[in-house]
């Protein structure tokens, strides 16, 4: 009989071998799982690297986009500045353009006015005095005969500047409608007629004629725009005209037809001539009436400003 330990040895050895086998199996599986883990770690690390690289690429892409954006913002600000500059330049240009158009308008307006003015006889609104008088050859542009029903004296023909005709006709007709008998005793007188008239007055009144009859060339009658009125109330004469209804009517209404009294009471030129009315245009006649002054009270430059509208 073998001793117990000798019998047990192969069992123990077998057990040991089994244990060794089990251990080596466990070890080998551990090693292989460690290897697998290592592999996984490497691949995670690689993935991480690639993610980092991607991120860094994204970051640099973002940086460059940001730089582009900042650049664009600057460009935009500059463009806005340029735009504002351009707008103000455009404004300035438009203003210049408007000014230019206004100038053109002014110029064409001025040309129109000059053209209109060039067609109006400047003598029609001149003051006549001992120092300023009409040339002996001066004659109105055109005369028309005044309807005989308004002329005092049988067979007498009186003439008036053709452009004053409509104003005078209206005045005479309106006075008639108001029951006022206005007649004309003298209208246009040529230089020679005025000379003849002055001579006749001088023969009759001596040097006293100077106070009421203008010398040749000084007379407003030579213009063809001036009228000596009379009335049946004084049998077609001149004396006492200031006391007639006809005169009162003229004082109140003549300005509406462009007529004004040349020589009122107390004037520095001639004696009071209530019968003597001159056509100066509605605008000037109304202004004189409103200001309660007379033609010869106004300075010539102011009067000249009315020439353009004399027949308006
Ligand atoms: Zn007169």
Q: What's the main sheet like?
A: 4 strands, antiparallel
Can you list the strand order of the major beta sheet? 3-4-6-5
- Bound ligands, each once: zinc ion
Percent of residues in β-strands? 5-15%
Reading off the top of the CATH hierarchy, the class of the largest domain is best stated as Alpha Beta
Task: Compute the separation of the termini in Å.
Answer: 169 Å
Map the helices and strands.
Layout: H1 4-118, E1 143-145, E2 159-161, H2 165-177, E3 183-186, H3 191-205, E4 226-230, H4 245-253, E5 259-261, E6 276-279, H5 282-291, H6 300-304
Antiparallel strand pairs: 1-2, 3-4, 4-6, 5-6
Bound molecules: zinc ion.
What features would you describe in this structure?
With 312 residues, the chain is an alpha+beta fold. The protein folds into 2 domains: 1-119; 122-309, Muramoyl-pentapeptide Carboxypeptidase, domain 2 (2-Layer Sandwich), CATH 3.30.1380. 54% of the residues lie in helices and 7% in strands. The chain contains 6 helices and 6 strands. The strands form 2 sheets. It has a 4-stranded antiparallel sheet. It is rod-shaped. Zinc ion binds next to strand 4.
The gist of it:
The chain has 312 residues and is α+β, with helices and mostly antiparallel strands. The protein has helices spanning 4-118, 165-177, 191-205, 245-253, 282-291, 300-304, and strands at residues 143-145, 159-161, 183-186, 226-230, 259-261, 276-279. 54% of the residues lie in helices and 7% in strands.
């Amino acid at each position: 009989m073998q001793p117990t330990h000798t019998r047990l040895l192969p069992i123990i050895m077998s057990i040991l071998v089994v244990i060794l086998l089990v251990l080596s199996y466990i070890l080998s599986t551990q090693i292989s799982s460690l290897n697998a883990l290592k592999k996984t770690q490497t691949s995670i690390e690689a993935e991480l690297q690639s993610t980092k690289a991607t991120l860094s690429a994204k970051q640099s892409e973002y940086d460059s986009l940001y730089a582009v954006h900042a650049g664009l913002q600057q460009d935009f600000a500059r463009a806005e500045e340029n735009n504002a500059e351009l707008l103000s330049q455009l404004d300035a240009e438009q203003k210049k353009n408007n000014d230019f158009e206004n100038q053109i308008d002014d110029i064409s307006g001025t040309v129109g006015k000059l053209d209109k003015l060039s067609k109006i006889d400047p003598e029609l609104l001149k003051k006549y005095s001992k120092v300023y008088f009409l040339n002996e050859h001066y004659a109105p542009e055109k005369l028309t005969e005044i309807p005989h029903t308004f002329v005092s004296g049988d067979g007498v023909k009186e003439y008036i500047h053709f452009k004053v005709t409509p104003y005078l006709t209206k005045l005479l007709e309106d006075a008639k409608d108001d029951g006022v008998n206005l007649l004309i005793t003298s209208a246009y007188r040529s230089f020679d007629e005025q000379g003849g008239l002055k001579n006749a007055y001088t023969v009759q009144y001596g040097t006293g004629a100077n106070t009421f009859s203008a010398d040749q060339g000084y007379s407003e009658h030579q213009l063809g725009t001036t009228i000596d009125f009379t009335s049946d109330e004084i049998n077609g004469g001149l004396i006492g005209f200031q006391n007639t209804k006809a005169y009162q009517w003229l004082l109140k209404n003549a300005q509406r037809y462009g007529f004004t009294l040349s020589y009122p009471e107390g004037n520095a030129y001639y004696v009071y001539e209530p019968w003597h009315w001159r056509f100066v245009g509605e605008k000037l006649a109304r202004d004189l009436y409103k200001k309660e002054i007379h033609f010869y009270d106004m300075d010539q430059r102011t009067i000249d400003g009315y020439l353009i509208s004399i027949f308006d």
